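Entry for the shared binder. Reason: the reviewer on the internal report wants the predicted structure included alongside the sequence.
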Amino acid sequence: AYSGMSPIDYQIQMKISHAKRLLQTNTMRISEISDTLGFFDTAYFCKLFKKYTGLSPKNYSEKIMHL
């Protein structure tokens, strides 16, 4: 109720935030990040990541590397 979103959306947002931090370190593959965060389907993780950030995990990682 405090965040203005459903518990599931909040949980996904937290996982996406954690994924962003992991992608910034560039030491893990996307499939490893997906597994670490509890997504058992990497394609689903990528779909959600893109939905919430506007970029695929790969594109996000590449963008961070060029900053």
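Summary line for the report: The CA atoms of residues 23 and 61 lie 6 Å apart.
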